Amino acid sequence: MGTRVRLLGSPRLERKEAVAPLPKERPLWLLSYLGAQEDWVSRAELLELFWPEVEPASARNNLRQLLHRVRQMEGVEGLEADASGVRWQAEVDVRLFRQALARGQWEQAVELYGGPFLEGVRIYGLPGLEDWLEAERADLQTAWGDALLRWAAESKPSQELLECLERLLERDPFNERALQAILQHAAALGEAGRAREIYAAFAGRLAGEMGLEPDPATRRLLEELGRSALPPQTPAHPVLHNLPTRLTTFIGREEELGLVNRRLEAGERLITLAGPGGMGKTRLALSVAESQLGAFADGVWFVALAPLARSALIIPAIAEALGLNLTRATDPKARLLEHLRGREMLLVLDNFEHLVEGAELVLELLNEAPQLRMLVTSRERLRLQAEWTLDLQGLSYPPGYGLEAVRRSSAVRLFVERANRVWPQFALTPQVAPAVLRICQLVQGMPLGLELAAAWVSAFTPQDIADELERSLGFLESPGLDLPERHRSLRAVFEHSWQRLTPEQQQSLARLTVFRGGFDRQAALKVAGVGPAALLTLADKSLLRRTPSGRFELHEVIRQQAQERAEAGGVLAAIRQAHAERYLALAEEAGSYLRGPEEARWLERLALEHDNLRTALEWALSQQDAPLALRLATAIHHFWYVRGHHREGRVWLERALGLPLEGIPPRLHARALNALAERTKDQGEYAQALRVQQEALDLWQRLEDLGEVAGALHSLGTIVREQGNFDQALAYFEESLRLRRDIGDRNGIATTLNDIGVVYGYRGQLEASRPYFEESLVRKREIGDRRGIAYALGNLGQVLSELGESARARALTEESLAIKRELGDQQGIAVSLVNLALLTLQQADLDATWSHLEEALRIFYTLERRWSIGVVLGSFVELALRLEQFERAVRLVGAVYGLTQTMGLAEPPVSAGNLERYLAAGRQHLEPQTFERALAQGREMSLEQAVDYALQQPLVGARAAPGAAD
What's the 3-state SS for 477-540? Predict the structure, then answer.
């Protein structure tokens, strides 16, 4: 468009050399709200923000008029609207700023930040929009400050950086981190005088407005400016505290513990550890307090607030913890303030969530006692400007099974330690580790959930515990006498939070339980009828987590407990239907972008929503809604293919096609059969794949849809090609190509050209295959099909490798691999890795060859691509021969033959000529008895044994013959 929208600083449009102000009031507010979002904003959300008390029909008319006004404005381009939503496809600095932050490009982010968001603009009369602007402005300025400090920490000192840091201190005059960075940079640049002036001004502000002095760490930096003196040594403070004795080991939270300690050392005065019940807030607070013993002249003091019924009791509770007698005080608060004033101490206030109306007392204590620091634990934020909040989530656990990774994870370490307390014989063996990991996943690392689960190991195996949790997390409860009532079960933990919600908040939380894996604002409003204000309230209460990307997540424990209450009220059926329809619309919209330049972005979006798509499919199946289930499954089957969810996709499609299909549109039925044939073929079930694809072809022929007939013929060609029937495959592809040329199907033509080239390549007719790959590549580039480009590049690179053009071949193969990694195309990544292994083997780079083959084999095994596993095993044979490990090579050849027989293939995945060459080398170097034994052992290997054998030794090198084809 050539226009950049500036919303950071004074709002304006920049086009070439011209700068124009943006419109004022509602048009500007609307454009700014749209410009700050990454995607569509629903009309319902805009109506709630801009006309919250207007009758819906009038509000909708107002929105139409406002959109019309905005469209008429000069320079405003890219405003799009449909029946459900609105978006502004403009180059907006706010979006670019956030994208730079996400990529860690701190310097670029700082350059993009032109000033406070909508500087000088005020919204009035719209409370929801006013709150949004205030929060957005604060969030962006905080993000800018953090980016600047990160840039300063990672860069060499410069005048430019020093000036930027000074601007940060001007906008945030009490930001001591900024002052510290200024002192460090000034020292390196020889600007001691300038730094001392800035320090003096900061110290004056701090003393005048807060009665404080800079942190000791900051004072030391000032003293070191001229390297004239070492920082003074501060004598250790006496250890004064009332911390309770820990009866169990504190495990995990190393990162959080270090972060909180660093914030305290940097001068932070009010830190809140927030999170749902059972997240270990109290344990972390006590660990922080213990690590601070001796750091405060007047001690570290713990105040338990859970027993208190009302906020008026906070003052007596603090006084009791400090040993301060208030019985004769006429004004207990004044007496407490008098006691704290001038004292240097850390006060830990535990379990504040039910007393948040007393947050003003916290602020008063901080103002009156300038050397006081406070650490608070709460399920709900205090909502004070001075508050720095750390949201606690579950302990970490690895995404997949690997014994060492499992052993190292915090969640597993906690489970094992607690399990040993109730059953000393318990050990984390390879046999029980998968079940322990599953327990961690089911409770999402919640410490209390892990402890409650571990309490059952004396009566149940970890697998039994995991099975019970699969059915219901309500299984987790403990009669432990030393546990508070609210922590004796996950139900009790949730009930404690649930009872603190208003009926409206309870309803909102219950309705949000239809989502899985997170959701965005638009989905919350459109599906569950929950607006931004309710989302923020639930997030403040630690019942929702807002991710850095702006999405919201429900911890599984909270989701399941809230859903049980919603089920009891019978309110979810209609919402689940709306949820399914929402994600069907998303999947079908994505379908039009998955074979073009937008493919990578839409694949990521579908990956982000995969759990919601699964939930929608499960709902459709439970309702026996065949049209909904089939539309969903066919819309996302390409995503399943690219991201390697072959088995899962097959199962969903089979379940959907197993529903009663009376009245199903034939086109929908045929599409589902196409998709099932593809997923079945990818698992090596060729007989079923041929049967299903032929059934789809018959349907398309009856419908006389030439484009779909061509697609079905193409799919048949890919199936028989993998069976080794190259002549039949070529016949199918050529008929498909003829039809696609007749109807002008550009993408189909380019794809079929590529696959014809693959057939010629498998036949060894390299010169014949080359023009097909070259034409396919040209056509794919014209269309902008990134994945198609990658496959054509890979195949062309393989041909050039065979023809001796190894340098160009490697460049094309590496370009192909880079695109596939960008798309997350697992199967494609593995294919390119095999082809790279072929090239590095030619160049005798055996370490690289081993690395490529190992990664490729692991991917194909995960994807259950048995035919492709056979190709890679052939490459490992080449590797073994290069290393003169002839017995190993013969055993792997036997595994290829065994796999060929198991799959019912007419030809093995590796050419017969190459297999004979491999065996001839083995016969030449081995005793006949050794040769026959190795070949027989290989034939008897299962698929799992063959893969494990290939990966046993850290070897290098190999090459598939005739190579892996894209």
Answer: ECCCCCCCHHHCEHHHHHHHHHCCCCHHHHHHHHHHCCCCCCECHHHHHHHHCCCHHHHHHHHH
The CA-based angle 436-437-439, given to 5 degrees, is 65
Q: CA-CA distance, 180 to 199, in Å (whole number)?
A: 9
Using DSSP bridges, classify how beta strands 345-350 and 372-378 pair: parallel, antiparallel or unpaired. parallel
Nearest CA to 706 out of 663, 736, 671 is that of 736
Q: Helices 159-171 and 192-210, interaxial angle, to 10°?
A: 10
Residues in the chain, overall count:
966
User: Encoding tokens for residue 50?
Assistant: 């801009």
pLDDT at 861: 87
For 370, the token pair is 């300038």
Sequence-distant (≥ 6) Cβ neighbours of residue 146 within 8 angstroms: none
Q: What is the DSSP code (8-state) at residue 477?
A: B
Q: Are 957 and 884 in contact (CB under 8 A)?
A: no
DSSP string over 262-292:
HHHHTT--EEEEE-STTS-HHHHHHHHHHHT
In angstroms, the CA 835 to CA 964 distance is 6
- In a 13 Å sphere around the CA of 500, the CA atoms on its Cβ side amount to 23
β 79-81/85-88 pair status: antiparallel
Over the stretch 106-161, which tens digit does the pLDDT of each residue have? Answer: 788 888 888 888 888 888 778 778 877 877 887 788 788 878 887 887 778 888 88
The amino acid that residue 604 corresponds to is E
Cα separation, 95 vs 38, in Å, equals 7
Cis status of the peptide bond prior to 962, with omega within 30 of 0: yes
Q: Provide φ and ψ at 74, rounded to 5°.
A: -65, 130
Contact by Cβ (8 Å): 827, 863: yes
Look up residue 570 and give its two tokens: 């019978």
Alpha-carbon distance values, 68 to 25, 46, 71, 73, 733 (Å): 15, 15, 5, 9, 51
Q: How many angstroms from the chain centroid is the CA of residue 365? A: 40
Alpha-carbon separation of residue 704 from 141, 611, 732, 736 (angstroms): 60, 37, 18, 14
Residue 377: strand pairing partners: 273
Q: How many CB atoms lie within 10 A of CB 699?
A: 20
Radius of gyration, alpha carbons of the chain: 33
Nearest Cα to Cα of residue 370 among 293, 253, 273, 270: 270
Rounded Cα–Cα distance for residues 605 and 599 (Å): 10
CA 575 vs CA 47, 454, 518, 910: distances in Å:
21, 36, 16, 52
* C-alpha–C-alpha distance, residues 453 and 436, integer Å: 10
Q: Which two tokens stand for residue 32?
A: 């700014």
Q: Predicted confidence band at 674 (pLDDT cuts at 50, 70, 90)?
A: very high
What DSSP designation does 84 have?
S
- DSSP code per residue over 658-708: TS--TT--HHHHHHHHHHHHHHHHHTT-HHHHHHHHHHHHHHHHHHT-HHH
CA distance 874 to 241: 68
pTM: 0.65
Looking at residue 117, the DSSP 8-state letter turns out to be B
509, two tokens: 């939380």
Query: What six digits make up the tokens of 244?
Result: 């309770």
Contacts of 202 (CB under 8 A, 6+ apart): 169, 173, 174, 176, 179, 214
- What is the model's pLDDT at position 960? 33
- Residues 589, 600: Cα–Cα separation, whole Å: 14
Q: Is the dihedral of CA 130, 133, 139, 145 positive or negative?
A: negative
Q: Which pair of structure tokens corresponds to residue 389?
A: 């909040």
Nearby residues of 688 by Cβ (< 8 Å), 6 or more positions away: 680
Measured distance CA(761)–CA(759) in Å, rounded: 5
Handedness of CA 335, 339, 340, 345 (dihedral sign): negative
Secondary structure E strands in 279-330: 300-304
Yes or no: say if 500 and 541 are a contact pair by the CB < 8 Å rule.
yes
pLDDT digits (tens, 9 = 90+) for 797-818: 989 988 888 889 999 999 999 9
Pairing of strands 91-92, 79-81: unpaired
User: What are the tokens at 148?
Assistant: 């600047």
